[in-house]
Protein 1
Amino acid sequence: MSMTRMRTRSQVPLTERNEDVIAKQEVQRKKALVDTAPFIKYPGKIVYSTDFTSIAENCAKLLDKANKTEDLFILGFDIEWPFSFQTGSGKASVVQISPNLDICYVLQVSSSNKLPKALTELLCHDKVRLTGICVKNDVRKLHRDFPGFDVDKAVDNCIDLGVMANTVAGFTQRWSLEKLVLHFFEMRISKDKAVRMSKWHVAPLSEAQQVYAALDAYASLKLYHHIKQEQDNQVDDEDQENQEMDIN
């Protein structure tokens, strides 16, 4: 007979059993949130532009802020493009940029053959960081459709929320924006197929399209700030533990 036997339930300490029950209850609660959690809403202003000149002017404003900031200039970032099961992915059509949680620039670039210089300079600016889910792929997609900027520099400026989340979540997985919003905010983000699969290249965008686009960039920036705070808290906790060990 093996000298090692499995512990019976009565042999497991009560505190350990309670922790196990609590953990299972938490798992069930999280699963229920998929269908019951409230939807995150976009609370800010949307600045929507479609022509080359207005897009360039709005990007120049952001570029001016980047030049003046002493710290990193974090931008919630996302792009949209039309998709067809017959023809596949279309050209990048909309660029969404949230410099803060109160405003989002929705830039419909589908009618242009090139991106404004102010936009490409913004993407590659030393102090700019673009944050989102799979954001590097978005930047590469934008470059494939609109060559003419330093894609390697722009990719270096990207901060992927999935990578950040894996440092604080307590487990690792491949994250979507929906999963991130659910995990960290216990909310859902609308991914209405009718809007998601809509004609992003056709101007003007409907109000539903504009809100959908703005929400992705807004949620990305909000998640960045939340996860960054959790990372900072982890560092503070580790520093406190090290100080206590040094004292002992």
Protein 2
Amino acid sequence: MEHLLSPRSSGWRRRSLAVCACNRGSPLGQQSTVNGHPRPVCVLQLKHLRTLLSPQGTLCGGVEQFDCCLRRSIYKNKFELTYVGPSQVIVKNLSSGTRVVLKSHYGYEVEEVKILGKERYLVAHTSDTLLLRDLNTNRLSEIAWQGSGGNEKYFFENENVCMIFSAGELTLVEYGSNDSLGSVHTEFMNPHLISIRINKRCQRGMEDNKKLAYLVDIKTIAIVNEDSTYVRGKHSSFPAT
């Protein structure tokens, strides 16, 4: 409630002021959206207002629009990262103007976002998961992942699978899937010494044909099927050094 000096009555009169608060839903993307960018909208309604300049005029209300975010950063002057909520980040390509959303399916808070693999892939950690997104195909994966101090190494040589190497363990993640293909132990982490086949040369009656071949040691090759069955074999032509 406010009081205004009225020139007509030469006295003070009351003015009731009602404010419609912004939606407080999470994330902010549930509010107003402009060109794919969420913006909260506040509506200010003034009731029983008689202006001093025009005693006959009235003001029904106004709409104010604000561009709000938790934080914003620029990556190499090529991408704009806007954290619009704890679990949602909008990544904008500054040259093309395209936007993609990196969001945790489980509502976990997204930590620092990295852009890797010749600036094609988004990688981000939460407290319990790892998010991967292919900017070219827009395929998003979120797998269960326990923090390893950020010491993971990522390999993006395969178009369909991301290879993650950490503490002697190799994890395979198929883009668009929220479950990892599997994990194996190996000390020979070289993308040129690993072969991955996803649904190539499918046999009749088989829905999926996913296989991994890698080095167990300098003379042993392991082949892993989707059902985690192993086929091991030694290749005598490998040098012993």
Protein 3
Amino acid sequence: MAKLPASITPPDFYGIVEKGIYRSNILHPTNFSFLKTLSLKTVIVLSPEPPTRALSTLFDEAGIKVIHLGVQAWKPTLGWRPVSEELIKEGLEIILDVSYHPALIMCTSGLHETGILVGCLRKLQGWNFNSIVTEYRSFAGTKSRYVNEQFIELFDLDLVTLPMSLPQWFIRQQQLLREEEEELQNSLPQPDSHDSPRLLYLGGVPSRAASGPTTPRLFVKNAAGRKADKPKKSKTVEDSD
């Protein structure tokens, strides 16, 4: 792999999330030359702190739109949550809109707010939670926080309204997930029409993660769809005595 010239230095926690989406910590003057190579259209700042004057000037000169969600969605009382749900909801709706691409997700450390937003994107993509945590910790390392992982796990994806102009990679992933679900449903045994008890699959919704489908739960039902009753013990003369 060819080395970059000494004058072009990526940020410490720079990474490619998906085509047209990048992530990093706050940029320093040594990173400015590298930033220009990305031909960014949008920068999403997740930290409450505004970009430095030098960085703001660079964005203005390059014609890069800055969306400072860290201020817009910040709340003084978040309880146990490390960030607000509004911040993550709005961030996801922006980065999934191709009209903002190429886009850079940025926070002060490049680990916490950014890591949560990327983790929730992975959850929306159907990643296995273990894979999400692995990616988060690969950036955060010893600075990883359990509360961030907990937020990702509990984040309600129904809050997110998908934009009309979705990126092709996201559309393809959703198609693959639907095909996977259809294949699993078609592989399930069809119920017979006999009155004898039969096995009914419940909860066999395929996992949207890379690890495969969840294990179906089984219980016995009769052909009429009612749960089969346990045989009652017949009452004898001895029992009545």
